[in-house]
């Protein structure tokens, strides 16, 4: 019997591995091993220093997962900032181990070569930062009324946003060859065309899908997204099997 595909899930800025906890009840664990990745400075890794440089974030994640990858098939799911971490991580894994992910799913993020936010969030003064974060959605305004939560959450989000907003993707010597799927929210400010631009980063297939909702559509569509991931991973396994037969 084939071992389950390891699915490493990277969170959005300010998020922890806990955002994927609700997926457990929907996933078929005989086919997919769900492995939410904890970034430094949060959750079970609260004691680790926060990282505000994308290269350091990716290096840290690489060392966190490298022994977990094993010899079987593996895949990445990234949400918003997690997309950029996933892309850089996939290249690092290929470069250092020669192993290619089976499949990658990017959600709620335009392709890296497209222009980002005109006014970076991480440089804003506290009050402006709070207003912009609330506008993005996903963070209840009441959080900013709790001084203890603010002292934990704001430095983490600022560090993540700095890592994201100061990062420039550098072209790699080789493109990835795995299949991509790209998910977006219909009401998010990322167009279908901007989502489809992720196709430039792989020689495999790249398909786009949209769900009802804004930037944090993930919160309302857990079951549908897990179903999509399972179907996409099964399809990628079938393609891989066919390629090996030729």
What does this protein structure show overall?
It is a single chain. With 246 residues, the protein is α/β, with parallel strands linked by helices. The chain is 37% helix and 14% strand. It has six helices and six strands; from the N terminus they run E-E-H-E-H-E-H-H-E-H-E-H. It has a six-stranded parallel β-sheet, with helices on both faces. Helix 1 crosses helix 2 (81-97). The longest helix has 24 residues, at 222-245.
Task: Give a short overview.
This protein has 246 residues and is α/β, with parallel strands linked by helices.
- SSE order in H/E notation? EEHEHEHHEHEH
Strand content: 5-15%
**Whole-number mean pLDDT:** 93
Count the beta strands. Answer: 6
Strand count, sense and closure of the main sheet?
Answer: 6 strands, parallel
Molecular shape: globular
Question: Structural class, please?
Answer: alpha/beta
What gyration radius follows from the Cα positions, in whole Å?
A: 18 Å
* Helix percentage range: 25-40%
Q: Catalogue the unreliable spans.
A: none
List the helices and strands and how they pair.
Layout: E1 5-10, E2 32-36, H1 54-69, E3 74-79, H2 81-97, E4 103-107, H3 126-136, H4 147-165, E5 179-185, H5 192-196, E6 206-211, H6 222-245
Parallel strand pairs: 1-2, 1-3, 3-4, 4-5, 5-6
Sum up the structure in keywords:
alpha/beta; 246 residues; 6 strands; single chain
């Amino acid at each position: 019997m084939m071992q389950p595909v390891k699915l490493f899930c990277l969170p959005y800025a300010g998020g922890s591995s806990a955002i994927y906890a609700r997926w457990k009840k929907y996933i078929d664990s005989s086919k997919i091993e769900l492995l939410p990745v904890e970034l430094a400075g949060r959750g079970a890794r609260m004691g680790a220093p926060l990282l505000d440089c994308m290269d350091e974030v990716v290096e840290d994640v690489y060392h966190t997962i490298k022994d977990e990858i094993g010899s079987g098939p593996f895949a990445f799911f990234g949400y918003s900032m997690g997309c950029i971490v996933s892309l850089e991580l996939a290249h690092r894994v290929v470069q250092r181990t020669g192993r290619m992910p089976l499949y990658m799913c990017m959600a709620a993020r335009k392709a890296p070569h497209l222009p980002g936010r005109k006014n970076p969030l991480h440089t804003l003064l506290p009050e402006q930062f709070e207003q912009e974060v609330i506008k993005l959605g996903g963070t209840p305004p009441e959080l900013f009324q709790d001084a203890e939560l603010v002292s934990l959450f704001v430095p983490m989000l600022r560090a993540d946003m700095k890592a994201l907003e100061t990062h420039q993707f550098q072209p790699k010597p080789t493109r990835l060859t795995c299949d991509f799927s790209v998910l977006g929210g219909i009401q998010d400010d990322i167009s279908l065309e901007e989502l489809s631009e992720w196709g430039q980063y792989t020689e495999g297939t790249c398909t786009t899908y949209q769900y009802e909702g804004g930037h944090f559509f993930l919160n309302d569509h857990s079951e549908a997204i897990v179903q999509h991931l399972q179907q996409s991973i099964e399809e990628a396994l079938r393609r891989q099997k066919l390629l090996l037969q030729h």
